[in-house]
Known about the structure:
CATH architecture: 3-Layer(aba) Sandwich
Low-confidence stretches: 4-10, 123-127, 241-268, 297-301
CATH topology: SMI1/KNR4-like
Radius of gyration: 32 Å
Helix content: 25-40%
Shape: globular
CATH superfamily: SMI1/KNR4-like
CATH class: Alpha Beta
Strand order of the largest sheet: 4-5-6-7
Strand content: 15-25%
Distance between the termini: 132 Å
Number of domains: 1
Structural class: alpha+beta
Amino acid sequence: MEGTKENSALKCIPERLTLGITGILENMPGVTDVRLAEREPAEKRNLLSWEQKNNCILPEDLRDFYLTTDGFTLTWNVKLENECFPLGCMTINSVGRLQPLHQPTPVFSLPNAPSLADLDWEENSAECVTDSSSSRGLANATTLPHFDSRSRIFELDSCDGNGKVCLVYKNTTTGVVAQQSEIWFLDFSLCWHFLTATFSSYYRLMITHLGLPEWQYSFTPYGPSPQAKQWASLYQPLTFRSELSLTHSAGDSILNKLDPTKAFKAKAKVATPKKKPSIPCSQTSNAKSQNSSGKPGVAKR
């Protein structure tokens, strides 16, 4: 009897981890091969070792997550015209792969090659402040992370090469244990975009977006690519937030408003005066006769 209860409890763990999203995906048209990689819980000594090594305290919700499963990977494919290819991917790195963010070592490294810390300065950081964070009323988003010792950054998800989702400890001091953390997204241009203040909020956000490609770019001013928007509108129509919601005060969409005078750099045509239509001589003489005598075609003697 106890063994049956334990087995049922183990079966409920994947359902609780995915918040029931696997069943929703399996019922979507064209979705196949929904896979959740089952992992053992992380050991407490590994969590303590990570905190001591990096001089950071894991947030409580992330610690509880790792004590449930050491990382998370859920993938699903889509079938179009009898051909399957991977589309959705939700990933949370394990404790062992929760490594500090660093610049990859180039194949031909130079002695004075710049690092990420060398590219970090105040002017560049100010330019990377996003409007999407301020529009959501996030005061903490104005204080951006730094690549130097002022912040401690750890990679949660590589986003399949489309950027990086990071666990960020800001305003850190050398030798002092960091405790407060946030979740940020680092895009290709090395600009930071605030996602959530807690790991739990980010996890729900990831599940809600179904792990679709480039969903993190929905929280940037420029948004995902057109192809990613098409996938989102197909499999996530209710929660998809595209630029179509941006309208003028009159309510007209600002998208696809083509102004030919601005889009096409052609020379302006010089306006030519219209020529008056020529009047035959016979009609002119008849008109003069009508004006002088009051009768058409009769000339005044």
